[in-house]
């Protein structure tokens, strides 16, 4: 049955630029509102609205399918739920969800007080703060050292420009202080009379560390540090013993750290070590020693230390190695903890300062995710950790250092039921075209036949050195229980197997990421997990760039493709240094403004620039009008060009959230409904809709 709906068509308007004697035509450049980040251009809004109407018209026929998926996904989430209480100083802190509510409430009570609710203090009421808002997200929260004042940040439009307010927890009074456009942690000075923070400038870049004294006008805030490099971003934090405020700056490959005393924040900052291109390091302090995690001798990072009086004279504590990738360290009063990965699997090791002898924690499964959880105090004899796998829901436990005893505090409940015995998980390797073995984590029902008859949902990201871990997820069960295998391709560009794995998927090696993903799909077909045309695939942001690349290169492999806020207009974005993220992104993708080779490389794979006259699979694209990371016009331009050039009749849908940003809609139920829409689209396109749930509408128009 062919759909009579006509997809929107975005007009083409001539737009040409020349770089390195190469001409770049971009007839949909007009979809970028010249007033951005304000979007008021009527033609732009009309086009986005028309696309949303077209999306809604198609998905209206799937409403019962979306509702069914949403109901079963919601059934796996405990509506009345709470975090495990954790002691921090004189109080115990936790958060709760109430039945039916989208947002958390945050609580505390004094240590030793009655646990019957009579001593509980509500300190942040997210449902009240979110009331009447289309979008709400709580950012940083910081309680003063004397436990009296609460600073918190909220974003109510998805722009990731947070507004900070301060409340007196003893009286409930709101202080008059308001700090706009904050994009950082909030750090109290030792005397609780001031906050250190990093605001976003007009280009959404944190280029300063500021000191706000309570009761003063924000215009009078003191600048503690300014970063001149347009590619660097400033962040702030606090050392584990809370003696030093950390002011860090850097981009994706280079970093630099300064320290100021928490009790004297306007003192001259201590520069730990001047920036060196492509050297990253981070710092904490223990009894006059700085501990420094750095990749100066090896991509996988080592741990060094230096006296705070001579901060750039480093002595090695733990050498780097090919086998172990050091991802983090945490200092406590009497011991420290290192976290990292070996063969792609999480490892947690505890060491004393005197001997550095490691105690490695063991975990029961062959593939899992494990690490430190919330450990706010410095002087402790118990550590809180979390553990999960693709078949084991998240488990929070305390580890007692004296004897290694583990006390399970909470296992994530699945109210509608979850029997791990029904599922199997494997960690496979698929050989890429250049001979590199690519790890793949797979989940399926134990009765899943390996005869190519079943569908597969394949997920990937592959950028910025971000690993996609083989953890537990409840929404994916809605596909797995319908016969899908669910797979994560641990492709190059992430740091799943260490920093070199990341480096092998960026800059001139960027296409390894796309090739790995395609080769994993073909490898899983060869192993009998699925067949060409039965693969649903999804990725967001840089993972959306991945989606754009693979539909250009291998369109016949995919039965349905979902690209969330996809970074698909790579060349134009990297050519525009006025965009918020561009200068800081050049180390990741290359600088096509100055480098003709970088221009040619990006032009060779940028999904928007490589759309061609061919058949494409069914595609669902999402965008956020207020998204500062992947601007709304990237997916809009891509969809417009696909509509113009593709030769098939498969469905192409664009949904733009007009009141949201990079993360889509806020609230646990709204975001869950968007996942239900994605899965309904996939079932529709793979011919797997349940009877009476939109199954009569199979066509899509020339969309």
Describe this structure in words.
This protein has 703 residues and is an alpha+beta fold. Helix content is 18%, strand content 32%. Strands 32-33-35-34-36-37-38-39 form an 8-stranded mixed beta sheet, sandwiched between helices.
Structural features:
disordered C terminus, 32% strand, five-stranded antiparallel β-sheet, 39 strands, alpha+beta, 12 helices, 703 residues, eight-stranded mixed β-sheet, single chain
Largest sheet: 8 strands, mixed
Instruction: Describe the global form.
Output: globular
Number of strands: 39
The total count of helices amounts to: 12
Oligomeric description of these chains: single chain
Judged by helices, strands and strand pairing, the structural class is alpha+beta
Write the layout of secondary structure elements.
Blueprint: E1 16-19, E2 22-25, H1 42-60, H2 63-75, E3 81-82, E4 86-88, E5 91-97, E6 105-110, E7 121-125, H3 126-130, E8 137-143, E9 149-155, E10 162-168, E11 174-182, E12 187-188, E13 194-197, E14 208-213, E15 222-226, E16 233-238, E17 244-250, E18 255-261, E19 270-271, E20 281-286, E21 289-294, E22 302-307, E23 315-318, E24 324-331, E25 336-342, E26 345-351, E27 359-360, E28 369-372, E29 382-389, E30 392-400, E31 406-411, E32 423-431, E33 437-445, E34 456-459, H4 477-480, E35 485-489, H5 499-503, H6 511-526, E36 535-540, H7 542-553, E37 558-564, H8 570-574, H9 582-589, H10 596-605, E38 619-624, H11 633-645, E39 652-657, H12 668-685
Parallel strand pairs: 34-35, 34-36, 36-37, 37-38, 38-39
Antiparallel strand pairs: 1-2, 3-5, 4-5, 5-6, 6-7, 8-9, 9-10, 10-11, 12-13, 13-14, 14-15, 16-17, 17-18, 18-19, 20-21, 21-22, 22-23, 24-25, 25-26, 26-27, 28-29, 29-30, 30-31, 32-33, 33-35
């Amino acid at each position: 049955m062919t759909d009579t709906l006509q997809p929107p068509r975005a007009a083409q308007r001539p737009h040409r630029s020349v770089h390195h004697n190469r001409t770049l035509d971009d007839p949909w450049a007009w979809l970028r509102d010249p007033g951005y980040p304000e979007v008021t251009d009527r033609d732009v809004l009309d086009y986005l609205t028309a696309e949303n109407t077209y999306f809604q018209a198609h998905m209206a026929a799937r409403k019962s399918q979306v509702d069914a998926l949403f109901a079963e996904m919601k059934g796996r989430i405990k509506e009345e739920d709470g975090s495990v209480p954790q002691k921090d100083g004189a109080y115990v802190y936790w958060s709760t969800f109430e039945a039916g509510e989208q947002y958390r409430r945050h609580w505390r009570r004094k240590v030793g007080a009655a646990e019957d609710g009579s001593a509980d203090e509500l300190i942040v009421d997210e449902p009240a703060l979110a009331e009447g808002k289309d979008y709400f997200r709580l950012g940083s929260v910081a309680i003063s050292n004397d436990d009296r004042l609460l600073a918190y940040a909220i974003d109510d439009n998805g722009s990731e420009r947070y507004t900070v307010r301060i409340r007196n927890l003893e009286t409930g009074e709101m202080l008059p202080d308001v700090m706009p456009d904050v994009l950082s942690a909030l750090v109290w000075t030792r005397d609780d009379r001031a906050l250190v923070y990093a605001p976003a400038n007009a280009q959404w870049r944190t280029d300063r560390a500021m000191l706000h004294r309570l009761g003063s006008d924000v215009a009078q805030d003191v600048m503690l540090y300014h970063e001149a490099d347009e590619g660097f971003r400033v962040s702030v934090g606090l050392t584990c013993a809370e003696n030093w405020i950390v002011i860090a700056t850097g981009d994706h490959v280079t970093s630099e750290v300064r320290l100021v005393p928490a009790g004297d924040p306007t003192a001259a900052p201590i520069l730990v070590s001047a920036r060196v291109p492509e050297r990253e390091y981070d710092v904490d302090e223990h009894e006059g020693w700085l501990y420094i995690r750095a990749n100066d001798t090896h991509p996988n990072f080592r741990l060094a230390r230096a006296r705070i009086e001579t901060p750039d004279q480093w002595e090695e504590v733990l050498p780097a190695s090919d086998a172990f990738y050091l991802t983090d360290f945490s200092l406590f009063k009497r011991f420290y903890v290192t976290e990292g990965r070996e063969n792609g699997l999480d490892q947690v090791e505890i060491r004393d300062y005197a001997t550095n002898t490691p105690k490695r924690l063991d975990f029961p499964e062959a593939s899992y995710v494990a690490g430190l959880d919330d450990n706010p105090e410095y002087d402790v004899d118990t550590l809180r950790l979390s553990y999960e796998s693709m078949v084991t829901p998240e488990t929070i436990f305390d580890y007692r250092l004296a004897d290694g005893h583990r006390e399970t505090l909470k296992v994530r409940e699945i109210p509608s039921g979850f029997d791990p015995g029904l599922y199997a998980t494997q960690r496979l390797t698929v050989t890429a075209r250049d001979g590199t073995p690519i790890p793949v984590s797979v989940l399926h029902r134990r009765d899943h036949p390996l005869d190519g008859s079943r569908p597969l949902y394949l997920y990937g990201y592959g950028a910025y050195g971000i690993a996609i871990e083989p953890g537990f997820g409840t929404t994916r069960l809605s596909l797995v229980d319908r016969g899908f295998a669910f797979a994560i391709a641990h492709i190059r560009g992430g740091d799943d197997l260490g920093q070199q794995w990341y480096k092998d998927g960026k800059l001139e090696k960027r296409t390894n990421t796309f090739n790995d993903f395609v080769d994993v799909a073909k490898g899983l077909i060869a192993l009998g997990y699925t067949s060409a045309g039965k693969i649903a695939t999804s990725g967001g942001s840089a993972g959306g760039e991945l989606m754009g690349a693979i539909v250009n290169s291998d369109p016949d492999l995919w039965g349905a493709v979902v690209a969330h806020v996809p970074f698909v207009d790579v060349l134009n974005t990297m050519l525009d240094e006025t965009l918020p993220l561009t200068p800081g992104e050049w180390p990741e993708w290359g600088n096509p403004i100055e480098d003709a080779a970088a221009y040619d490389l990006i032009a060779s794979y940028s999904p928007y620039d490589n759309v061609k006259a061919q058949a494409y699979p069914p595609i669902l694209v999402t965008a956020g009008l207020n998204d500062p990371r992947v601007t709304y016009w990237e997916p809009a331009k891509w969809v417009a060009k696909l509509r113009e050039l593709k030769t098939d009749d498969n469905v192409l849908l664009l949904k733009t959230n007009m009141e949201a940003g990079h993360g889509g809609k806020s609230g646990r139920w709204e975001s869950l409904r968007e996942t239900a829409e994605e899965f309904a689209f996939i079932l529709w396109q793979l011919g797997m809709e349940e009877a009476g749930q939109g199954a009569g509408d199979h066509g899509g128009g020339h969309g």
